[in-house]
Amino acid sequence: MKIAFSKPSLPTEGAIAVGVLEGKVLCATAQRLDDETKAGLTRAVETSRFEGKKGQTLMILAPAGLSVSRVLLVGLGKAKDVDAQAAQAFGGTAVAQVLTSGETDLSLAIDAIPGSTLALGEFAANAAFGALLRSYRFDKYMTKQKKEDKPSVKKLAVMTAEAADAKSAFAKLEKIATGVFLTRDVVSEPANIIHPESLAAIAEGLKDLGVEVEVLGEKQMRKLGMGALLGVGQGSERESKLVVMRWQGSNDKNAAPVAFIGKGVTFDSGGISIKPSGGMEDMKWDMAGAGAVIGAMAAMAGRKAKVNAVGVVGLVENMPSGTAQRPGDVVTSMSGQTIEVINTDAEGRLVLADALWYTQDRFKPKFMIDLATLTGAIIISLGHEFAGLFASDDKLADRIAAAGKSVGEQLWRLPMGEAYDKQIKSDIADMKNVGGREGGSITAAQFLKRFTNDVDWAHLDIAGMAWSKKDTAITPKGATAFGVRLLDRLVADYYEDKAGK
């Protein structure tokens, strides 16, 4: 879908989407269309339940007096609430309604909203961003798709009085969308396509953006003493990998980097502690944390973020076999700490243990943030509305939460403490990898904290957010790429050159 920005006008073909504020208040272009149709829009609204509430839509087909084939009314909600997220929802909702309609051209009319603090150019740019994000499809394996199910919209015209400003603002957002799409792609792929070696190769593609990429194999990791990570992958025929990505965007190349670490279990059978067969196919996306880190690095490099950033992803496949790790085994991590493996399905924390230690030991970062589909317990706690946030530093936690809220990737901070830490005490090793059913997400975080070496650290448990079974305004059902926009916003707001400290 090609996106272009232009000055306001009434299109002569295709579909046009216009905004309506809560209370059935037509925005300027909608009012103009209403005049052209001799109150046709007003009559349609009055004979429907459409009130202009956020997310509501009303389609008017073949409106008399207009050359366009359809007019889509999209609810914006209250004027004071029209912010960047609302603008994205406007664009995404419009595309979702028209994408497979048979229309090839869609115009978005962006009008000034009295009472909104969002600049018109930013409104237009974010509407285009939302439209782009919602247009995503993962249908490469569908060979017999019906014509009516295929996307038809080829061109999106975003009409605004501040077209130049909108185009400039959209340029950076488009780079973020590229990172989001990369993450959605790799998370959506089946496990016979995405495995440690192939995902590492995709990460190496970031070299084209100026990212330095290293791929460590099992021989190198064994030399480093990464017994925790290697233990997870030893049951698979596929070799485990550790991928290190570096973006040196700061003016000071020696400045300490920010660091992001991702869990990359490309398929999680549970190992010897095998999962039930029902729903196991979903475990292709147990690498969504790694996918988000790769996508975030692509987004930052794409928009030339003025920051030094490191992304480290541990890539393994957790399979049962004669060589697989057993419950009761003891492994030695890179940190030298020993771990009793009680449950081989609590494998992500073992991967992250070595990845975290490696990151702090080699790069001495300002902070570390890991992302992982770590526990089912977080879904029981928070459902599919919030990701779990755990942190050793309040300031870092507050900044992450603020960044997440600003992009619509919500987080809820959970407690940590010595009482939870005691739950992972082992009788024969320094710790065990599970602490029981009670507070399962928290004890998992306590486990990870032991490998941070007192570096400021946060853990995002995204198990409930990495995959969606329903569409949202800007995300079709499937892989969400949760974390890409959050991490990019965190860096943009607080850690780029000349940003706050």
TrEMBL record:
Per the record, the GO terms for biological process are: proteolysis
Which residues are listed for Mn(2+) 1 binding in this entry?
A: 268, 345, 347
Q: What class of enzyme is it?
A: hydrolase
Q: What's the EC number here?
A: 3.4.11.1, 3.4.11.10
CC annotations in GO: cytoplasm
Q: InterPro entries from the entry? A: Leucine_aapep/pepB, Macro_dom-like, Peptidase_M17_C, Peptidase_M17_leu_NH2_pept, Peptidase_M17_N
Main localization of the protein? cytoplasm
- Annotated positions binding Mn(2+) 2: 263, 268, 286, 347
Task: Name the family.
Answer: Belongs to the peptidase M17 family.
User: Briefly, what is this protein's role?
Assistant: Presumably involved in the processing and regular turnover of intracellular proteins. Catalyzes the removal of unsubstituted N-terminal amino acids from various peptides.
Official protein name in the record: Probable cytosol aminopeptidase
Q: Which gene encodes it?
A: pepA
